[in-house]
Amino acid sequence: MRNDQVVSEQRVARNSVARPAWSPAQGIALVVGILYLVIGGIALARTGFSFDALDKADVAGLGHTVWMGLATLVYGLMVLGAGALPGADRGGLVFAGILGIAGGIVIAVQWESFERVLGVDQTNGVIYALTGAVLLVTAMVAPVYRSRGRADTVVDEQAYDARY
Hints:
Elements: H1 3-9, E1 10-18, H2 24-47, E2 57-59, E3 62-64, H3 66-84, H4 90-109, H5 111-118, H6 122-141, E4 148-156, H7 157-163
Antiparallel strand pairs: 1-4, 2-3
Helix pairs in contact: 2-3, 2-6, 3-4, 4-5, 4-6
C-alpha cells in the first residue's frame, strides 16, 4: 500500500476544546476567603454559640463576639465562592470589596457603637477596609485568561464505513 493511499483513507478531525477561564484574582480571593473563614471559625470556637453572653475573643489581634465571628465566616464564604468560579466572578469580588471597604470605614470611624455587640475596635475596621480595597483593585485590574486548545483525531474512514 502506498503512502498516498493511507492518507486518502484516513481523515483528520479537528476538535476545539474550551478550557475554563482563569484569573490571578482567583488566587487572591481564595487566600482572603480562607483567611476570613479561619479567623471566623476560631472566633466562634473561642466565643461559643451563646448569643446571650456576647463573650469577646481576640483572634489575630482582632476583637470578635459570636456575631462578628459569624459575619467574618459568612464574608469568607462569599469571597471564597467568588474566587472559586472560573475567571473569578468580577461582580462578586467587586461587591465583596465594596462591602469590606464600607464596613471597615464604618467600624474604623464609629467603633465605640459596635464594641459591645461585635467586640470590634479601630483595628478591625482598618483591616476590613484594606482587604476590601485589595479585593476591589484585584477585581478591576487582574486579567482574565481564556484559552482554546485543539485536539486532532485521526479517523480511519474504511473502518468507520465498515462499522456503520
